[in-house]
Amino acid sequence: MSPWKSLRNTLFMVGLAWAFIGANSLIAYLALGTTDFIPIFTGVLFGVAFAVALRILHEAWWLAALSVVPALMVLIGSVGHAPSSALERRGIHEQVTITADSAAGTTSKRHEFTLLGSDGELREKLLYRGQSPDYAVGDRIEVVYDPEGVAPLQDASKVDAEGRLTMLLWGGYIWTGMVLLAGWRGHANRRSNREPLLERLGVM
User: Fold this and answer.
1) What gap in Å lies between CA 167 and CA 184, rounded to an integer?
2) 10 Å Cβ neighbour count for 180?
3) What does the alpha-carbon distance between residue 198 and residue 204 come to, in Å, rounded to a whole number?
């Protein structure tokens, strides 16, 4: 493979990484108000596709395996930025008291906390998925909810659009660094007369 072709493939991979990031962020925004399963599912698919493409370019599973870490950053950042951004733009803050937990006395990991505000019980509940919730009945916390009912209600202390965006971008930066490393490694392998996987398969 010529150096120019190698450079082209490396630049293609960089573009592919940022295309995945942009696509999943857009999917998360479009899915806002429905379910977060869709952007989570597509984010996982994009992460797997990137790892496979990186394996082909680099010929080392260890680097493809390491790409899971930035893939997780991209997933969390893209899925979490959409609702956080909506709540920061138009969300209404309110001090509430937790009056009930739907999972109390059960083994369920899905907790729906009933909230009592200054004007009575809120129609929307605070959702927590996990075994050990950060909240208990009687706790007084500040929540933020979307008056348009699109973004789900959240604990105000956990709404951080800038933090999610930072995580998303850092995931992209690390992916880019891995692609450049993979391209350099492939070039070094060719100089030492090691055939890249694509050439051995007759693809290139």
Assistant:
1) 26
2) 14
3) 6
How is residue 36 annotated by DSSP? S
Closest to 182 (Cα-Cα) out of 58, 46, 7:
58
Tokens matching residue 143: 């929540």
Maximum Cα interatomic distance, the chain, rounded to a whole number of Å: 74
Q: How far from chain centre, in Å, is Cα 191?
A: 37
Identify whether the C-beta of residue 178 lies closer than 8 Å to the C-beta of residue 66. Answer: yes
Q: Which of 63, 58, 67, 62 is nearest to 198 (CA)?
A: 58
Distance CA 48, CA 72 (A): 11
d(CA 150, CA 31): 10
In 3D, which of 13, 14, 44, 12 has the Cα closest to residue 28?
Answer: 44
What is residue 151's DSSP assignment? S
How, if at all, do strands 92-101 and 110-117 pair?
antiparallel
Burial class (CB in 10 A: 0-12, 13-18, 19+), 193: exposed
Q: What is the pLDDT of residues 116-153, one digit of tens each?
A: 998 899 999 999 888 888 888 999 999 999 999 899 99
* pTM attached to this predicted model: 0.80
